[in-house]
Amino acid sequence: MTTTVERQPRNGVDTPTLFATLDAVKGSPDLAKFQFRATNRWISGTHNRSTIRGFFGAGQEDTSRTADFTYDADHPAVLVGTGNGPTPVEFVLHALAACLTSGLANIAAARGVTLHSVESTVEGDIDLLGILGLSDQVRNGYQGIRVSFKISGDAPDDVLRGLIEQSRRRSAVYDVVTNGVPVEITVDTH
Amino acid sequence: MTTTVERQPRNGVDTPTLFATLDAVKGSPDLAKFQFRATNRWISGTHNRSTIRGFFGAGQEDTSRTADFTYDADHPAVLVGTGNGPTPVEFVLHALAACLTSGLANIAAARGVTLHSVESTVEGDIDLLGILGLSDQVRNGYQGIRVSFKISGDAPDDVLRGLIEQSRRRSAVYDVVTNGVPVEITVDTH
Questions:
Q1: Which residue in A73, A75, A85 sits closest to B14, CA to CA?
Q2: Least C-beta-crowded within 10 Å: which of A49, A76, A82, B89?
Q3: Percent of chain A whose pLDDT exceeds 90
């Protein structure tokens, strides 16, 4: 498969800067080491709030974000919560759709494809017998996730499908969600 | 290890309803089958927006949510985005902290522990040589995630630590993030 490398801004992507960034990282691979962070504070019951702001990357602490992003999570009433936010598992679906879509726009720009619209729906099936401790045969998390894309752009069907396939191949969240990541938990009591 | 089962509301958790829900699901296990959803729409470049509202569970479509939850995601300028939201991978950290904390409050209530405060910080290390396609030796997603809890409550150190350990054992997002989930992607072009 051959792809055409375009250097024009497209789809709201600053394609020249995208390629310049790739060249910079090729020359200094340590620029690619990032650390992302979130802090969370319990409010009441299943309601809690995360703050996202600082991260390290490209050799330094970020200073571009001038305000916190804050997100509430909660359980709905049917799960004995107060519904002050989506459930944590729903944020995973958002993260997956967002990552695939962000990558797609970059890849389309790099391949010279103008996108008209991209929409996706993500569904995750979960059997709460696991987290409720009512069955050892049922996992805690989603049993399966389906992502359905609708994409429109100035390229043939196979090229548009190829954009999504390449985005899947290079998606950080898709990798995390399909392959898993080691998680270490430490506790300080006081 | 023995735990005391309390039936008093505590920590903002309606403990009697929590146990009644467990009993109801024991009697009708199909009530535990849930489907969560998110829809996402591309805006421009790496900026896109998810909407979270409907879900199926406890045998029916939810009607308790009277408005959409909407969340923007984007890449920061250093990653050639416009910074209109956190990156998708940061939402994964939020989801993980939120899930562990929601479960913790329920477990504390069930064990008769009054919580004073719960805070957590989540850090994820990622080497973008993977998603940038600059190394086949580097994965796309996080290489590791660390969660640091600070917890205060009216119980001894080992009991407080036990709450977090039990929350980890029963966390949907922890399971997804550590063990992975099959993801199916379908595409409709037009």
A1: A75
A2: A82
A3: 95
Residue range A75-103, pLDDT digits in tens? 999 999 999 999 999 999 999 999 999 99
Q: Tell me, what DSSP letter sits at residue B77?
A: G
Confidence of residue B6 (pLDDT cuts 50, 70, 90): low
What's the residue count for chain B?
Answer: 190
Pairwise CB contact (< 8 Å): A121 & B179: no
Q: Which of A14, A71, A142, A43 is nearest to B177 (CA)?
A: A142
pLDDT at A4: 55
Partners of residue A161 in chain B, C-beta under 8 Å: 187, 189
* Residue B36 main-chain phi, psi, to 5 deg: -105, 155
CB A73 within 8 A of CB B94: yes
Read off the pLDDT of residues B64-120 as tens digits, 9 standing for 90 and up.
999 999 999 999 999 999 999 999 999 999 999 999 999 999 999 999 999 999 999
Backbone angles phi, psi at B93, to 5 degrees: -65, -45
In whole numbers, what is the pLDDT of chain A averaged over residues?
96
Which secondary-structure segment (H or E) carries B187? strand B183-189
The HSE-up count of residue B42 (CA atoms within 13 Å, CB side) is 27
Task: Judge contact between A145 and A177, C-beta under 8 A.
Answer: yes
pTM above 0.90, yes or no: yes
Instruction: Reduce the DSSP state of residue B22 to 3 states and report it.
Output: helix
CA A44, CA B117: separation in Å to the nearest integer? 9
Task: Report residue A129: phi and psi, to 5°.
Answer: -60, -30
Q: Which of B69, B127, B150 sits opposite A32 (nearest CB)?
A: B127
Strand partners, B189: A151
CA distance A186 to chain B (A): 5
The interface pTM score, or ipTM, of the predicted complex is 0.96
3-state percent breakdown (helix, strand, coil) of chain B, nearest 5: 35, 30, 35
Beta strand ranges found along chain B (DSSP E): 33-44, 47-52, 55-57, 60-61, 69-73, 115-127, 144-153, 183-189
Q: Which residue has the tokens 């923007």?
A: B72
Phi-psi bin for B169: left (phi > 0), alpha (psi -120 to 50), beta? alpha
